Amino acid sequence: MSGALEFREAIREAIIEEMERDESVVFFGEDVAAEQGGVFAVTPHIQEHFGESRMFDTPISELALAGAAFGAAVSGLRPIIEIMFGDFMGLAMDSLVNQSAKYWYISNEQRSVPLVVRSAVGGGGRFGAMHSQTHATWFQGVPGLKIAFPSSPAEAKGLLKAAIRDDNPVIFLEHKRLYSVRGPAPDAGEVLPLGRARVARRGKDVTVVSAGKGVVDALEAADLLAGDGMEAEVIDLRTLRPIDLDTVLESVARTNRVLAVEEGPATGGWGSGLLGRIAEQGLHDLDDAWLLATAELPIPYSPTLEDAFIPGADAIASAVRARAGIAVS
Fold first, then answer.
1. 121 and 263, same domain (yes or no)
2. Is 135 known to be catalytic?
3. Looking at residue 2, what is its pLDDT?
4. Which mean pLDDT values do the consecutive 10-residue runs of the chain (329 residues) have?
5. Do 205 and 159 share a structural domain?
6. 132 and 253 share a domain?
7. Boundaries of domain holding 290
8. Can you give the pLDDT at residue 328?
9. Taking the model in full, what pTM does it have?
10. Which of 131, 135, 175, 284 is catalytic?
């Protein structure tokens, strides 16, 4: 890797490079062609590169967006669509869950559906209960869909390029609190495989597993725990479907303890499901396993309440210390 790249720039570069590489890639969504590049300033000036036939704004209708993407995908294009806030993915459920995810199967493997749905997710931005959810688990149990959730600029670029090239529909989640984060740029042309986690930090005392911004918080928590003499290993899942259980199990075999950190409620969450699979397949290596998630409540709007609601670095470190019996004065 060389140089530095902002998360939003990484997303933009991946889109431009894939549109240049493959003329069948098209991009459309709500306010994406605006001069500022949408609410989060991710896609400015892309239309200038490719014209209105390959990149354009649409009406505010998530169902229409998803339906158009499905039709385009089965007709030979590779559409990328942006649903501005992931909270409104519920409006696109029929096209994504009942059509896009199943078409490969019901067409007797005659038609793939290569589409990508980009969405901003997550709390901490003071957007309130209806614009701050992380909706990955809405799609967790749907065969035929893939779910990517990058944690850094390099991961965002490499995973998005892979998602665009994939022949399956991919839900691509972008945490709002990461858009302004800068990090090392990936090597030119690097494409990261979907379904393969990475060990973001090595350790021997406990495994902390997360995705998206949770990985950033887990790495910060590992620094805090190092001051207590604990070495935390951090696993970045990268994709929530398919989930790379092998990498997690290999880590748990080394540390014997695992904490899953999820920005969302425990009920129906990916964290609970992952811990269950670890217990099923790695119980002989397991001394302790637990989950740090949000309360079973909508995300509060108050800055003070929202900060306390989301499991950040301090909460992760405190959870590990409490489990290990480490007192902090």
1. no
2. no
3. 58
4. 86 97 97 88 93 94 96 97 95 96 95 97 94 93 97 98 98 97 92 97 98 98 96 98 98 97 96 97 96 96 95 97 77
5. no
6. no
7. 198-323
8. 59
9. 0.96
10. 131
Q: Which two tokens stand for residue 295?
A: 């309360």
Q: Reading across the β-sheet that carries 146-148, which strands appear in turn? A: 55-57, 25-29, 78-85, 116-121, 170-175, 146-148, 239-241
Phi, psi for 178 (deg, rounded to 5): -100, -15
Number of Cβ atoms within 10 Å of the Cβ of 1: 12
Rounded to the nearest 10 degrees, the angle between the axes of helix 213-226 and helix 313-324 is 50
Tokens of 84: 């501005």
Helix H or strand E segment including 236: strand 232-236
**What's the pLDDT score for residue 188?**
87
Among the three residues 132, 162, 184, which one is the final residue of a domain in this structure? Answer: 184
Q: DSSP secondary structure string, 45-114?
A: THHHHH-TTTEEE--S-HHHHHHHHHHHHHTT-EEEEEEEEGGGGGGGHIIIIIIITTHHHHTTTS----
DSSP assignment of 13-54 equals HHHHHHHHH-TTEEEEESSTTSTT-TTTT-STTHHHHH-TTT
Q: Tell whether 30 and 68 lie within a shared domain.
A: yes
Contact 230/282 with Cβ under 8 angstroms? Answer: no
